[in-house]
Design goal:
The structure holds three protein chains of three kinds.
Chain A: H1 2-11, H2 17-27, H3 33-59, H4 74-98, H5 104-129, H6 155-188, H7 192-201, H8 209-242, H9 254-280, H10 289-320, H11 323-334, H12 338-350, H13 358-361, H14 364-391, H15 406-429, H16 435-441
Helix pairs in contact in A: 3-15, 4-5, 4-8, 4-9, 4-14, 5-6, 5-9, 5-15, 6-7, 6-8, 8-9, 9-10, 9-14, 10-11, 11-12, 12-14
Chain B: H1 11-15, H2 20-23, E1 53-58, E2 67-73, E3 76-82, H3 95-98, H4 100-104, E4 114-118, E5 125-128, H5 131-148, E6 151-156, H6 161-174, E7 176-180, H7 187-197, E8 202-205, E9 212-216, H8 227-239, E10 245-250, H9 255-258, E11 262-265, H10 271-284, H11 293-302, H12 308-315, H13 319-331, E12 335-339, H14 349-362, E13 370-376, H15 382-393, E14 397-403, H16 407-410, H17 417-422, E15 426-429, E16 443-444, E17 455-460, E18 463-467, H18 480-491, H19 503-517, H20 524-534, E19 536-537, H21 587-593, E20 597-604, H22 618-622, E21 636-638, H23 640-646, E22 652-657, E23 662-669, E24 677-681, H24 691-694, E25 728-737, E26 757-762, E27 768-771, H25 775-778, E28 796-801, H26 810-818, H27 826-830, E29 839-845, E30 862-868, E31 887-889, E32 895-897, H28 907-911, E33 918-919, E34 946-947, H29 953-965, H30 978-982, E35 988-992, H31 999-1003, E36 1009-1010, H32 1014-1017, E37 1023-1026, E38 1028-1031
Parallel strand pairs in B: 6-7, 6-14, 9-10, 9-12, 10-11, 14-15, 15-16, 20-24, 21-23, 26-38, 28-37
Antiparallel strand pairs in B: 1-2, 2-3, 4-5, 4-16, 8-13, 17-18, 18-19, 20-25, 22-23, 22-25, 26-27, 28-35, 29-30, 31-32, 33-34, 36-37
Helix pairs in contact in B: 5-18, 6-18, 6-19, 7-14, 10-11, 10-12, 10-13, 10-14, 12-13
Chain C: E1 8-14, H1 17-29, E2 33-37, H2 43-49, H3 56-81, H4 94-121, E3 141-147, H5 152-162, E4 166-171
The chains are: A mainly alpha, B alpha/beta, C alpha+beta.
Chain lengths: 454, 1034, 173
């Protein structure tokens, strides 16, 4: 790696250990007014969400827009959306780590933080969605005096295991990654508060050669475990639909299709977050245009996969000659929700095509707008799958229409606020750029360049 | 409980035909003693807590006289079911009858005597008053009026039997006039019978004996005369080897029309021409020699001017149809021609009925399908109403009693009944509900409902139904009979030679007469108890129709007008309404100023609201109208072209106004109504009557109808019945949109084989051949991936014969009643949150096997009804997806639902192919005293829980337990879910699929059998359907 | 190794990694116990100081296998203890249970790895960092050599020769 290190060195010449430390440390200097305003906005959104949920619990689950026959709506849409967002974090931090993709190091911390907070957000929705949330624990297999166990054949139970595992593993991975950087902060800390905070959270990390040994070895293993999760979690989520018999849900293509979509939306979200942070905290030398170029290529790839999946869905519906499938996929672009469908098609399939024009892949302003589009598009993808399929299934006599309620909107806003709140707090109190790992790809200081190296 | 039960039987012992012994416990009705009802502290001897007691009785909702059995638990009536022993309904019961419980427990019922202290009509204010005071006032007023030589008037609804006798005797002895009024009574038909057959009344029709029926708009499957009886006859024939072929001619698609083989949409008022054309063709073929030659001559003369072509042109139907109708009538051994419903309720209704009667005579149906020996005699008389009202208006009436009728709502406005009432010093209403008429009363003496009273119904000579109280009065009410008797006593005017202390004694006296008349020897008490246990006495029930044919034609009949009805302009003048200062008389000029186009107003009765008496029953308000699928509303049906002319679209509000009144109804565009008319259901738009009725504030369509809009028929100076279809009105778009709540998503089944129709056609040899789906789809036997569930003892299943389903929706209401299904109200229904476990899907297709996405034109129309409830699939998609096992498959083949384990992920509903699962989006209220009706055997579900049809598992358990007690298995037919029990046509069969000889298995042993969607997704439902039958269009 | 052999330790602060590595070689040559603090892990350093493989992976494997077993056992035993038929599916529907087994494998494996790492890295342990200096987490390398009181001067000298910016003698533990 040292060898590559020298290559790196030539490319981004004067970046030194000290510069990395100071640049990142700057991000964590006492909050500015802007930061407080951002945090306040997030908290406000959280408040809106909390109020909406309270109303739903007090008045009845009917306060959300769901009805007969559309029993799943905005909440499950949000659930899938946020789980999807989470994925690219794991992809960047784990998969690319295994592939030794160097562009990962500068953005992985952001991505990983996004993962953990996105799962934290997604995890709320199954609860919010339940008709009797006060009995959510009945989904857990725990010994009880009723001598009842949950149904292990239900995809929803698979979800319980998949999501909780995912949260645990990615949180572990995230925290372990933080330890050395927190140690750095501990050793630089000026205020007592931070001194105490970092001393405790660094767990007494010293960076001795034995610690590094076991650390790197464990880190590799974490990456190895997180990697299959990238594939499995969203596959399990997709089985919530694919295992059912609802036309538009019952499709074998779902797992790969969902995973690709997840990475697609996740990378877009990384951009959405990285671009402003990079601008505000002057990280241009750490998060370089070449990183964005790489992410753009990832978006081009996944957008292609997703578009292909869409087309395949329509093709199989036609080829199956199954009247219900055919009706469903005619309904999607031309039915009651045609707007939702075409928003999805534009944002996910058409807009990313622009990236084939190289200059745009490094055009920050364009990328920011595009990433927002993709986030919107992917939210609607899930909406289309869930709501459209349920609105128009087997029995024409019960076809229905989904009416968004204010509670739906409130809770959706609350989710973004919740996610934003964690992000905001995080970038101020913990290194949002992985100091140690950036140092790692820099050449170690040598008195004698030539004596060293092999 | 004040009275002891005359029959304390539960379902099982009843089915075993026992209970007679237990029945014979002396009865002492004390319904003249008022008392509150409490749950038992010390129970009555025959009451076992937790065990139901059944009381046989007779339904008093309409005049059909269906037998009912009232299920009571701990002294409260919780369910009403049809009595299989009754010759009229033979076990079935209509939606109205099922909902009679909600009249009993109506939260808006008048709970004690009231005195009006201020205001009148809408503004009236009442205060409670004791029975003694009230009665004292009434007798005082009676005495005065007698002294002053003023007269007295009694206005009631249809009344037969002892109560009728009592009222007329009371009136006689008090010198009062007694007039009956029921807007839906086919008095014109009775009148026609008098003219043609020489006897006033409604003959008994036998649809099961006819091969061909030509029907001019009679809704005999809905509200006409005796719908449950007729529906059963029709269905029996439809299931037979030679199903009756029904031609239905009407201007607007009705539930009955939907079940006809050939539905012909005609221009309103032209029925009589078509009938004449038929008569002409029939006579031309040389029939009719059974009539006196001069009669036949005059008939030929009558039909001279009409030709099939001219009639077809007038009616707007094809000539071929008329010719083929005649052809079928002539070739049929027995046929039947009837007219009724709104279509036959024009000013010239009598003419139409006369022609139909003549057709029946000429076709020699009298004595076979038309039975003159079992005449129902309607008491409704417009003449006596007229005279009574004018007497009231000129102030000669001092005391007026109103009971069982709501003329202010149901009489045409220009009768000025409300105005007349206000001219009477003392108006006493005996209504149990604060309806429009009662709002004008000075005193309200609330009476019992049918389920609290003694009484009897005389359907016809030889069929007497008995009504007994099934529980103590819910409120401080009294029976009319008891009140009249006490009034008579206090005035010293005996109402009968053998003075009765209370109405029950009076009733028994009159039953002694019945016993004598039918030569019942021996102990009367025995006869009485048997009759009470049986719910009546039906000596001639099984007697075949008369061989004797009576045709005594009143020659004046030939001078009747037989032209198409000319509907008077909306600004008809000369109406008396302007005498009524309360009537907002805009005058002709004002009317001309009204914008909009003139349309014909077409008010029609429906199973939902009947004549308006059922409007305050949430079950019926939330029941989707079988044809329009609309809940909690009234509406105006317009033909697309008419809607275009008026510049309105579905959901717009249409103001329909004429000189007499105004309604504002949501527009419902349908190709199945004739052009130039607006069809509006009767019975909605109450100004008072109760919270549920008043929630539909569209205005009362009957206010648009006017007596003076009816040109006097030559036969009678007063038309014998109210002409529903007679008035025209200006219609124009009102501001704003209406929230028209339609519970059905798509009217077409999009070629999905949900409701299958099998066409019947004559083979070359004249034998009937049916053409259905290819056998492959029927014998659906795929290799199962998993080993199917073992069912050791029982495997419950249901078979539904679509050929017998009329879509009447009685089953839906029965399900609400049995299973404590909450009513959620209009807004929640609009959000798609109605809770009904059982829905009747109504599809418009063209009867071929390639249903187009668009609904077909009227001439190709073929309507299908599919009762859809949980299919209890063996490969149930809902089960494996539940994370907490809240739903699973039990060893009796039931798809079980564990309410209190449900956490509400709603995945089961998503995965349910048939979308029959219903979710509690909120906690729903059962406003006091509706909650008294709740079935103690069924859990009331709370918010966040999924629910669905259970095949009435509580009834299964009851039967299983009693079987176990007796060391046997459950007998076939021992378990009947509420829907199966209530079905008037017995289209539903329930039983054990494991038993090869069970009725449910036998029923599905036909090539008509299929399972909905099973062919596509292999859900293996336990519910099987039989294809609908329909004669190929000819 | 919780502590360093010898009652004294000599801390050398290095700016260059190659110098630090030379110091380590020297310490090794003298058979002295040592510890290296570095801001980042480095292959060459690792090859020098800890050539053999880390045992963490064995714990990981054990955890993973345990998880797999647990997952399947849980699903199967629960289904047998509460045997309800849903649709026509078997009480033990293996395909569905694979998901549970799979997720538990990963969960248990990850947790085992974490614990193993904590164990071998001796964290959490906030206080005992022998000869640690805050600069070692920034951009300096630290070589801590344990020795007897008598050897301190000699060792200090050696470290200086290797290029230590500064050298400090502290008490060992």
């Amino acid at each position: 790696m040292g060898h590559h290190g020298t290559q790196e060195h030539k490319e981004e010449a004067p970046v030194t250990y000290a510069e990395v430390d100071s640049t990142v440390a700057k991000m964590m200097e006492p909050p500015t007014l802007g930061w407080y305003i951002l945090l306040a906005t997030c908290l406000l959104c959280v408040g809106v969400g909390a109020a909406s949920w309270t109303r739903q619990i007090l008045v009845g689950i009917g306060e959300s827009g769901k009805s007969h026959p559309i029993s799943w709506g905005a909440y499950i849409t949000n659930f899938v959306f946020w789980v999807g967002i989470a994925h690219s974090g794991t992809l960047i931090s784990a998969v690319l780590y295994l592939f030794r993709a160097k562009f990962r190091n500068s953005i992985y911390r952001l991505a990983e933080a996004m993962t953990v907070f996105a799962v934290l957000t997604a995890g709320l929705f199954p609860l919010i969605h339940l008709g009797r949330p006060w009995f959510f624990y009945w989904l857990m297999p725990y010994p009880n005096q009723m001598a009842l166990w949950p149904n292990f054949r239900s995809p929803l139970l698979w979800d319980v295991f998949a999501v909780s595992t995912y949260l645990t593993v990615s949180a572990t991975f995230f925290i372990v990654g933080l330890i050395p950087d927190v140690a750095i902060m501990r050793d630089r800390a000026k205020t007592t508060f931070r001194k105490v905070l970092y001393t405790v959270t660094a767990l007494g990390w010293s960076g001795s050669h034995t610690q590094w040994k076991h650390y790197t070895s464990a880190y590799l293993l974490f990456a190895a475990f997180a990697t299959p999760l990238v594939v499995s979690v969203h596959s399990v989520v997709s089985w919530d639909f694919a295992v059912s018999i609802v036309p538009g849900w019952h499709a074998t293509i779902f797992p790969p299709y969902f995973v690709a979509g997840a990475i697609f939306s996740g990378v877009a979200m990384v951009m959405t977050l990285a671009i402003p942070i990079r601008a505000v905290y002057k990280l241009e030398r750490l998060i370089t245009l070449q990183h964005f170029d790489a992410m753009s290529k990832l978006i081009m790839l996944t957008s292609g996969v997703v578009s292909y999946a869409y087309i395949t869905e329509f093709y199989t519906a036609w080829y199956s000659n199954n009247p219900f499938e055919r009706a469903q996929f005619w309904f999607r672009p031309f039915g009651d929700y045609w707007i939702a469908f075409w928003i999805m098609a534009f944002c996910n399939c058409m807009a990313p095509l622009a990236l084939w024009y190289k200059p745009l892949r490094t055009n920050i302003a364009f990328l920011f707008v595009l990433s927002i589009f993709i986030n919107i598009g992917m939210w609607f993808e899930r909406f289309n799958i869930i709501v459209q399929s349920l609105s128009h299934d087997f029995i024409p006599a019960v076809w229905g229409y989904y009416n968004f309620s204010w509670v739906d909107v409130g809770i959706t806003i609350g989710a973004f606020g919740w996610f934003g709140m964690w992000m905001t707090l995080f970038i101020k109190f913990f290194p949002a750029v992985a100091i140690m790992e950036i140092k790692e790809i820099l050449p170690p200081p040598m008195r004698n360049e030539h004596a060293h190296g092999h | 409980m004040s009275q002891e039960p005359l029959v304390s039987i539960n379902r099982r012992s009843f089915l075993k035909g026992l209970g007679l012994t237990s029945a014979v416990t002396a009865a002492s009705c004390a319904s003249d003693k008022t008392q509150n009802i409490y749950s038992y502290v010390r129970g009555e001897p025959e009451q076992i807590p937790g065990v139901a007691t059944w009381y046989a009785s007779t339904c008093t909702e309409c005049t059909a006289g269906c037998g009912i059995q009232v299920r009571t638990r701990d002294g409260r009536a919780v369910k009403v079911e049809g009595d299989p022993r009754n010759p009229i309904n033979r076990g079935g019961l209509c939606a109205l009858g099922q909902a009679s419980l909600q009249s009993l427990y109506d939260p808006d019922r008048i709970r004690e005597p009231l005195k009006r202290v201020s205001g009148v009509g809408e503004t009236a204010r009442f205060e409670p008053i004791s029975w003694d005071e009230a009665l004292a006032q009434v007798s005082e007023a009676l005495k005065e009026s007698l002294a002053e030589g003023k007269t007295r008037a009694v206005v009631t609804g249809e009344m037969s039997g002892a109560l009728g006798d009592l009222v007329s005797q009371w009136s006689k002895s008090f010198g009062a006039s007694h007039s009956m009024y029921d807007v839906l009574q086919p008095t014109a038909l009775a009148k026609a019978s008098e003219l043609v057959f020489g006897v006033y009344g409604i003959p008994e029709y036998s649809f099961d004996r006819a091969e061909v029926v030509v029907n001019f708009g009679a809704d005999f499957l809905e509200t006409w005369i005796s719908p449950v009886q007729f529906a059963r006859q029709w269905a029996d024939s439809r299931r037979s080897a030679k199903p009756v072929r029904v031609f239905h001619i009407e201007p607007r698609l009705s539930l009955t029309g939907a079940s006809a083989d050939h539905w012909l949409m005609n221009k309103p008022g032209t029925e009589v021409r078509v009938a004449l054309a038929l008569l002409k063709l029939v006579l031309a073929s040389g029939r009719g020699n059974n009539l006196a030659s001069d009669v036949r001559q005059s008939l030929v003369g009558m039909t001279e001017k009409v030709t099939p072509g001219s009639a077809a042109a007038e009616a707007g139907i094809s000539e071929e149809k008329i010719l083929s109708m005649a052809q079928y009538l002539l070739s049929a051994k027995r046929s039947l021609v009837i007219a009724g419903g709104a279509a036959a309720s024009t000013a010239d209704a009598v003419s139409l009925h006369v022609v139909c009667h003549f057709l029946n005579s000429v076709l020699e149906n009298v004595g076979t399908t038309v039975n003159l020996n079992r005449m129902r005699i309607p008491g409704t008389s417009m003449e006596s109403m007229e005279s009574t009202i004018s007497a009231m208006k000129d102030g000669s009436v001092a005391v007026a009693f109103v009971h069982g009728a709501n003329p202010v709502f149901t009489l045409p406005s220009d009768y000025g009944f409300e105005y007349a009432l206000r001219n009477v010093p003392l108006v006493v209403s005996f209504s149990s509900h604060l309806d429009e008429t009662t709002q004008n009363a000075n005193l309200v003496l609330p009476t019992h409902t049918g389920l609290e009273s003694w009484g009897d119904v005389r359907m016809y000579e030889g069929a007497y139904g008995l009504t007994q109280p099934s529980m103590s009065p819910v409120f401080n009410t009294r029976g009319l009979g008891d009140v009249l008797i006490s009034l008579a006593a206090s005035a010293g005017k005996p109402v009968s030679d053998a003075p009765a202390q209370n109405f029950k004694e009076f009733l028994q006296e009159s039953w002694k007469a019945i016993a004598r008349k039918h030569g019942v020897a021996g102990d009367f008490t025995k006869f009485w108890n048997e009759s009470v246990e049986r719910g009546g006495f039906f000596p001639q029930a099984e007697v075949a129709p008369a061989d004797r044919v009576r045709v005594q034609v009143n020659r004046s009949v030939f001078s009747l007008p037989f032209a198409s009805v000319a509907f008077v302009a909306a600004d008809a003048t000369g109406h008396e309404a302007k005498k009524d200062e309360h009537y907002d008389d805009k005058g002709p000029a004002a009317h001309d100023a009204v914008p909009g186009k003139e349309v014909l107003v077409f008010p029609y009765p429906s199973v939902k609201s009947f004549d308006g008496r059922a409007a305050n029953r949430p079950w019926l308000q939330e029941l989707p109208d079988p044809i329009t699928q609309i809940v909690w509303d009234s509406w105006g049906e317009l033909h697309p072209s008419t809607a275009k002319e008026l510049g309105v679209a579905q959901g717009d509000v249409l103001t329909v106004r004429n000189h007499f009144g105004e309604v504002n109804v949501p527009v419902l565009v349908s190709p199945y109504v004739s052009e130039g008319m607006v069809a509006i259901p009767i019975g909605q738009g109450h100004g008072s009557y109760g919270r549920f009725a008043q929630s539909v504030n569209t205005g009362n369509v009957l206010t648009l109808i006017a007596k003076t809009a009816v040109k006097d028929a030559a036969a009678a100076s007063v038309a014998p019945s109210v002409a529903l279809v007679s008035a025209r009105a200006k219609a124009f778009k009102a501001p704003g949109r209406a929230k028209l709540v339609k519970t059905q998503g798509s009217d077409s089944q999009h070629d999905r084989d949900l409701a299958r129709t099998r066409l019947i056609s004559e083979g070359t040899d004249g034998a009937l051949v049916t053409k259905g789906h290819n056998a492959a789809e029927h014998s659906h036997d795929v290799k199962q991936m998993y080993q199917q569930r073992e069912h050791p003892l029982y495997e419950w299943g249901m078979t539904i014969d679509l050929a017998a389903c009329t879509g009447c929706s009685a089953c839906v209401v029965a399900c609400y009643a049995e299973n404590n299904i909450p009513v959620v109200g209009k807004q929640r229904c609009y959000e798609g949150r109605e809770m009904s476990w059982l829905r009747i899907e109504r599809y418009y297709d063209n009867g071929t096997f390639t249903n187009k996405e668009d609904i077909p034109p009227p001439e190709e129309l073929s309507v299908s009804f599919v009762p859809m409830m949980c299919q209890h699939c063996h490969n149930a998609p809902c089960e494996p997806v539940c994370p907490v096992y809240a739903t699973y498959h039990n060893e009796e083949g039931l798809n079980a639902m564990v309410y209190n384990r449900c956490v509400g992920t709603r995945y089961c509903s998503n995965n349910c192919t048939y979308k029959v699962r219903r979710y509690n989006w909120y906690d729903y209220e059962f406003p006091d005293t509706l909650n008294w009706q709740l079935n103690p055997d069924v859990t009331k579900r709370t918010v966040g829980i999924m629910e669905k049809c259970t095949f009435c598992v509580q009834r299964i358990s009851e039967a299983r337990d009693s079987a176990k007690d007796e060391g046997r298995t459950v007998r076939d037919g021992e378990v009947q879910p509420a829907c199966v029990q209530s079905c008037p046509t017995q289209a539903l069969t329930f039983g054990n699929l494991k038993d090869p000889h069970s009725a449910v298995n036998k029923a599905r042993d036909t090539d008509r059998a299929y399972k909905v969607l099973d062919y596509y997704i292999n859900t293996q439902p336990a519910v099987g359907y039989l294809e609908r039958l329909r004669y190929a269009k000819s | 190794m919780t502590s360093i052999r010898g009652n004294k330790v000599v801390v050398g602060v290095f700016s260059f990694m190659d110098d630090a590595m030379n110091a380590v070689k020297a310490a090794k040559a003298q058979g002295l116990d040592y510890r290296v603090y570095s801001p980042v892990p480095n292959h060459d350093l690792e090859a020098l100081t800890y050539p053999e493989k880390s045992p963490v992976r064995f714990f990981t494997a054990t955890g993973a296998v345990a998880g797999l077993t647990f997952g399947f056992a849980l699903a199967i035993l629960c289904s047998l203890d509460y045997p309800l038929r849903v649709s026509a599916k078997d009480i033990i529907s293996v395909p569905g249970f694979v998901v549970i087994g799979y997720e538990c494998t990963i969960l248990f494996g990850a947790i085992a790895t974490l614990l193993a790492m904590f164990h071998f890295c001796k964290v959490p342990d906030i206080f005992r960092k022998i000869g640690y200096d805050p600069r070692f987490s920034q951009d300096k390398f630290g070589v801590v050599v344990g020795c007897g009181a008598a050897q301190t001067d000699e060792v200090s000298e050696k470290l200086k020769q290797c290029g230590a910016d500064e050298v400090e003698v502290r008490n060992g533990l």
